[in-house]
Specification:
Blueprint: H1 3-16, H2 21-31, H3 46-63, H4 69-82, H5 89-105, H6 111-128
Bound molecules: protoporphyrin IX containing FE.
């Protein structure tokens, strides 16, 4: 996976948007309408914002030192299972991020960025297939 392309894409987004969260969740809810109801208690969007920040932080670890990303994702799978979030949505969340970020980056979004995000989504799919309790 082209980690630099993902980092470049995040920089393009940061330059253009103070808060990409609304677009990310718009994409997620459009594709997976059943997920919107899960956030009914998050009236001010604080949990949604925090979740996206954590997802990006985890991504930065994964692209860099890769110390905790996989285990953290698997632990979150279990936490989220308790609130009714199916694990297979996790890679889709990264996919929704890619779609929203591409929209925000506009012309600055390159084929290399697109390919890197597709690779990433595939790798997250692999990670979440291994439940934390088997480690
Ligand atoms: C990389 C993947 C994910 C990470 C790291 C993550 C992380 C988090 C964190 C840290 C919180 C607590 C936020 C807070 O209350 O401050 C949270 C809450 C939540 N997450 Fe996630 N999450 C991930 C994926 C997902 C996905 C894919 C869904 C389903 C669409 C989801 C649904 C929720 C819901 C419903 C809450 C509770 C919102 C509320 O308090 O009302 N999460 N998540």
């Amino acid at each position: 996976m082209d980690a630099q392309a993902i980092i470049d894409s995040l920089e393009e987004v940061a330059e253009r948007s103070d808060d990409p969260a609304p677009q990310v969740y718009e994409r997620l809810f459009a594709r997976y309408p059943e997920t919107e109801a899960l956030f009914i208690g998050d009236t001010r969007g604080a949990a949604r914002g925090q979740m996206l920040r954590q997802a990006v932080e985890t991504l930065m670890d994964y692209l860099g030192p890769n110390i905790y990303a996989a285990n953290f994702l698997r632990a979150e799978l279990r936490n989220h299972d308790d609130i009714g979030v199916p694990g297979e949505i996790f890679p889709r969340f990264y996919h929704a991020m890619a779609e929203a970020f591409a929209e925000i980056a506009g012309d600055a979004w390159t084929p290399a960025m697109q390919a890197a995000w597709e690779d990433l989504t595939g790798q997250i799919e692999q990670i979440v297939q291994v439940p934390a309790r088997t480690i």
